[in-house]
Queue: 3 jobs
Job 1
Amino acid sequence: MFDDTYQNTVELGSVAVFDNVECGKAQAMKVLEEAAEVFGAWQKLDKDTFSDSSDLIAELCDMIQACCNMAAAVGCDDLRLALWDCEDRNRKRGRITGMVDRGSQCTREKCKRFVFVPIEVRQKSSDSWEAIEHDSAMSPIGYCEQVIGQDMANVHNVTAGIMMCKHLVKRCKAMGGAE
């Protein structure tokens, strides 16, 4: 049953990733290969009835698997915040207009990879410019472990640096009153 008060969603759940993923050209090409296979399955689909979409669904799952493998290869094991950010961008572009009932879903605050500063909160009460300045001098791995609270075992220093920079920018925006 579809209630047009809420936005349609597709449930994914957790996606197990391959062992020993690497952020290399082969993994990036795998995403493209799977996307091409999705297009091929779509071309074969009966567009009038959509009666047998099993091949298309299987190819979509292969593509999702390849994307999750790539995310894992760069140290991301929780895409929820990034997907919500993507949804927000698409809402601003008018592509998604329905309301979302998130009552049964995990909240942004429960995402394990990121610390989220709610949009309605302009400043974290415990944060200060001095704290941000102090924390910015930390090593990327140390920052991610101590400030973000992320286990950084087997995570490359470059990935930790990116996470640190993004987190510091969010903190600065929150301190400055920007969304």
Job 2
Amino acid sequence: MNVLLVDDEPLSRNELEYLLKQNSAINQIYQAEGISDGLQLLLKNQIELLFLDIELNEENGFSLAKELQQLAQPPLVIFATAYDNYAVDAFNINAIDYVLKPFEQKRINQAVAKAAALLADKSTDQTVTTAAYPTVITVTQEEKTTVLPVKEIISAAVNNGVLTITTANGDFSAHETLNWLKQRLDPQKFIQVHRSVLVNLNCIREVQPWFNHTYQLTMTNQQKLPVGRSFVKELRQQLQM
């Protein structure tokens, strides 16, 4: 597989490159010291695995990880960092592994083996994506970060630029987009029913006819939500109506 290393420390990049070269699953290795260089390499080369540091001078590796969502075929992401306090955030953006500095051959081999197994099973893009869906997500508001179990999410809606996630234990808000949340949830369990509304299929209690051949949903918490006309077909397919 072809690998890209993004780290602002040359010694760390070279150390990781040396360890990766000892692994027979690795073909080509590219290096970048920042987000801009990394993106250019990703656009020009068929890179299947990305080892990404988090603190990159004045940049943040999570910014690059979010940019990957715009690629038609994004690489698998492994965070490689000296800090262990970003692990939850890393897995929330579908990273497949999280390795700490100083790097060890055995640990790097384990991470590469995980990536190789995912790539081998990639008969469809959905196979890999489903394997990476997190069981929790984090939302931050006013410097307070809350960890939300995905299974407790009932719905989510955006109003005036604020994303509100409704769970069995209350509402939680964040300055994120609906698409940001949608990309972190299994599409077999969560679907968009309106340009500003996402729902948990397992939490739909009733589907009632509404204006202009649309529907209104009643959720398990008695919440009433609209279904946009352009989302009716997918809803009917998912619910086998």
Job 3
Amino acid sequence: MDAAERKRKIIIGGALIATLIAALLVEDEDELAFQMPEAPLQPARTAQEKNRKPEPNTAQLDVSKLGQRKFNPQAGELFASTTWMPKRAQLDDHEEHEIKIVQPVKIAPPAPTAPPLQFKYAGKTIADNQTWVFLSQSGENFITKLGGKINDQYRLDAINDDTVTVTYLPLNVKQTLTINQKLAGNFR
């Protein structure tokens, strides 16, 4: 056993002994605190004294002298409902008859549109007179040729040095992806 371990055991043992002594002292104080002082015994009351009703105390406060509580009108209603809506304007009698009910205008929902292209151009290669394009989307890579499908939702229609044209198949909408030559690689 090295010196550091021995020192640690001595400190822990000392703390244990101090805790035990403190617990014993607290127990002794609790026993002293709960001892009841002896009180002189009073004679037992008779059955007549027990059954006798106490006489009403006529010196009690007369409640009618208290009066009614006065409320301050500036305090407002205690249980009033609150709302953020503005109060409606009061209408005169002749204005009530002139109110017209306006039917809400039904607006047609906007025409569906293709989602923005999430593809990134990774490169292209030409093999056997076919151009193959490498695209990525959310960490997933796609390789396709002209006329091929990408992700069953897009079709590759055209490719040149600056753009890739695809068609969003559910709506038959053409979209263009711009090629950034600095970031993408071209394989030939």
